[in-house]
Specification:
about 500 residues, Glutamine Phosphoribosylpyrophosphate, subunit 1, domain 1, Rossmann fold, 2 domains, 7-stranded antiparallel β-sheet, 6-stranded antiparallel β-sheet, elongated, binds iron/sulfur cluster
């Protein structure tokens, strides 16, 4: 277990690391949640390994809360799961129910007080709550609650949800939750432990994924099914949009709350966020990404020598692109896997070359060749430009850039930390202008229709596509996110489908 000082150091280090990593990724993963009800198992260790599998969804902080029937114990800290939990810590977390969380901050700063799960002592007992997603009316709710005397210990929207549940005064947690969700708008996949119950819920739009499984006489819930594989659990099904699952010593109970006409599952789970070995709504993520690559090749027939993925996220689409086009796949862009969270920020004059620390093309493979780089998305365009520059310096004859999703022109308000609208290159540049800005010989995006069709197990009208088309399934209140520019325009395009 780390002392407070150590935790703060991790926080500082992770901030440095993330600054550096931001050079390469404009998408910041959201959060991952995990829950288990299993009286016969070491629930803390199962949660630890579940969180390990979900680490890609957030690396700033992590926490595990364990309920033993009478009380809830919790441990959380800044950094990676492996940095926060040791054997002694896990040995001290004994019980029958656990909830866990890995966090990337989408609302609230990166600091220990904002780490989850949140532990609340209220008139009906204790609850530990872990949340993936982002509410869009947090400011308004928080203002109203504070006016009514509520005190908050963190700056995250998840504490607002816990406060709303506590204030309902309902005896049963599921009844308090049903009451609380009447007030909240936005994205939430929740796992909550009380002393005796595990409760899971997905918001009525189903933005963020949440699945249900079983393990050795118990039940598990997780943001992604890859965590079930890690702990030897079996996937039963998705938690449905608007569904509340309650698990206690009487078994499993499902409560369906009202839902809109169709769900709004975040399409970027398939494009980038989710692990390739996860299955969401019956669709394996790797297969969807390969299909996106095949469709990209169909939409943009090409005359080139090599298909080169931008690692790691471009690999599945590049594989599909190569299969469909018949052009050989070459792993000619090498990623340094040891550039981690504790990397020291390069000095200013090194910063322009900072991307070379992480990525480097193999000159012997690309010299004199017409290459097609394949990546999952372009957000700000700064990393894409640096990669194109590298290939030019390595002697490539032509450098074409293929993207396995459409241009990202609008910010996300539902749990993904994208740039402000003004920083999204597609918000102000045509495809031709973006191509010029990144210095490529050609730039080719997958169409929205092609992307959605590639995820063939999910109906095409079941997705949120707001960052591509600006049609936000739930209105973004004016006070919600003033830091993301272009808010007026965003409000004008609220979805009326
Ligand atoms: S706006 Fe984009 S990133 Fe955000 S939930 Fe919708 S599809 Fe996902």
């Amino acid at each position: 277990m780390h002392g407070k000082e150590d935790k703060m150091k991790y926080g500082e280090m992770s901030q440095q690391g993330n600054d550096f990593n931001n050079e390469f990724s404009d998408w910041k993963e959201e959060c991952g949640v995990f829950g288990i009800y299993a009286p016969n198992l070491d629930v803390a260790r199962y949660t630890y390994f579940g969180l390990y599998a979900l680490q890609h969804r957030g690396q700033e902080s992590a926490g595990i809360a364990v309920a033993d029937g009478e009380k809830i114990m919790i441990h959380k800290g800044m950094g990676l799961v492996s940095q926060i939990f040791g054997r002694k810590t896990l040995d001290g977390l004994q019980g029958k129910i656990a909830v866990g969380h890995v966090r990337y901050s989408t609302t609230g700063a990166s600091m220990l007080m904002n780490a989850q799960p949140i532990l609340v002592n209220y008139s009906r007992g204790m609850m530990a709550l872990a949340h993936n997603g982002n509410l869009v009316n947090t400011r308004q709710l928080r203002y109203e609650l504070e006016e009514g005397g509520a005190i908050f210990q963190s700056t995250i929207d998840s504490e607002v949800i816990a406060s709303l549940i506590a204030r309902t005064g309902k005896q049963k947690i599921e009844e308090g939750l049903m009451e609380a969700i009447k007030h909240i708008k936005g994205a939430y996949a929740l796992v909550i432990a009380t002393e005796n119950k595990l409760v899971a819920m997905r918001d009525p739009h189903g933005w963020r994924p949440l699945c249900l499984g079983k393990v050795d006489g118990g039940y598990v819930v997780s943001s992604e099914s890859c965590a079930f594989d890690t702990i030897g659990a079996e996937l039963i099904r998705e938690v449905k949009p608007g569904e509340i699952i309650v698990i206690d010593d009487e078994g499993l109970k499902s409560i369906q709350t009202p839902v809109p006409d169709h769900p709004s599952l975040c399409v970027f789970e398939f494009v980038y966020f989710a692990r390739p070995d996860s299955t969401i709504d019956g669709q394996n993520v790797q297969l969807a990404r390969e299909a996106m690559g095949r469709r990209l090749a169909q939409e943009h027939p090409t005359d080139i020598d090599l298909v080169i993925p931008v690692p790691d996220s471009g690999i599945p689409a590049a594989l599909g692109f190569s299969q469909e086009s018949g052009v050989p796949l070459s792993m000619a862009l090498i990623k340094n896997r040891y550039v981690g969270r504790t990397f020291i920020q390069p000095e200013q004059k090194m910063r322009e070359r900072a991307v070379s620390v992480k990525l480097n093309p193999i000159r012997a493979l690309v010299e004199g060749k017409r290459v097609a780089l394949v990546d999952d998305s372009i957000v700000r365009g700064t990393t894409s430009k640096k990669i194109v520059d590298m290939f030019r310096r390595a002697g490539a004859k032509e450098v074409h850039f293929y993207v396995s999703s459409p241009p990202v022109a609008y910010p996300c308000f539902y749990g993904i930390d994208t740039s402000a609208r003004s920083e999204l290159i597609a918000s102000s540049h045509s495809v031709e202008e973006t191509c010029k800005a990144i210095g490529a010989d050609g730039l080719y995006y997958l169409s929205t229709e092609g992307m959605v069709a590639a995820i063939n197990e999910v109906p095409s009208n079941h997705f949120c596509l707001a960052c591509f088309d600006g049609h936000y399934p739930v209105e973004i209140p004016r006070l919600g996110h003033p830091q993301k520019l272009g808010i007026e325009e965003t409000r004008a395009k609220v979805d009326t489908r």
